Amino acid sequence: MDETPRPRVVVSVSTSVDGRVTLRRDRLLMDDSAHRIWRSMQPEGAQAAEDARSSLLAGLHGPQAVLEGSGSLVTDSAGPLTGLPEEFDEPVDALHTDFLPEEVAERPGHEKWFAVVDSRGRVRWSMKRDGEYDLLVLVARATPAPYLAHLRRERIPYLVAGGERVDLAAALRRMREKLGVTCVVSTAGGGLNGALLRAGLVDEIQLLVIPAAIGGLGTPTLFDGPELADGEVPTRLRLLFAHVGGDGMLWLRYDVVREPAPG
């Protein structure tokens, strides 16, 4: 069994009062029109609350990575990238090994990673770096070889964890082992956050609750993904902090309560 410790995982998301994290399943918040509507829901103090939350996280945990899912960047209907060359400069087996080019991992000024789970190879990247953040793609052994070859040609780092899809626990351990990451902040949507929750990988939750309700059957929520299986119980939380702003914004911080191991 791999005993490499994993990073602490903090889910840090803004939601409506009914737990929605976007307007509709087919509306990405990265789209300008959806982003404008989402921002219009927020009171004037929302940005100050976001800044305060970021400062608290930095002071408490010094996170070195932000985690997102491909579903935050492309729609559900998007499949693997097409039109990529089918001939590779390296053997296929080599493509399915970690790729961490020195000019990125050792780049002067590099401090943090923007890590994206993309098992199917769906995202075509136009930006590889944003200030102190460098892009890191988390893939699986089943990720299409043309996509992995594309990442290598573009000098985009990736880690391989899992078979048919990214094994989140293994990916986190590899981020700790290979990159020294001790804390990851997930700003992802409900699919990835739900998978982290079911896998027992969430340690802390920080929520900014916007004084607005969205509704809608199927609208993504903070934790989507698999339902509770028979015999499973909900994840218990301990409230660490609650702040109610005069403008109606609510800031909540919870620790996940770890149940003692049986026996």
UniProtKB/TrEMBL annotation:
Domain Bacterial bifunctional deaminase-reductase C-terminal: 7-245
Biological process per Gene Ontology, one example term: riboflavin biosynthetic process
Keywords: NADP, Oxidoreductase
Gene3D superfamilies, per the entry: Dihydrofolate Reductase, subunit A
InterPro entries membership: DHFR-like_dom_sf (IPR024072), RibDG_C (IPR002734), Riboflavin_Biosynth_HTPR (IPR050765)
Annotated spans, Disordered: 68-87
Source superkingdom: Bacteria
GO molecular function: 5-amino-6-(5-phosphoribosylamino)uracil reductase activity
Pathway the protein contributes to: Cofactor biosynthesis; riboflavin biosynthesis
A Pfam cross-reference name: RibD_C
The protein's name in its UniProt record: Deaminase
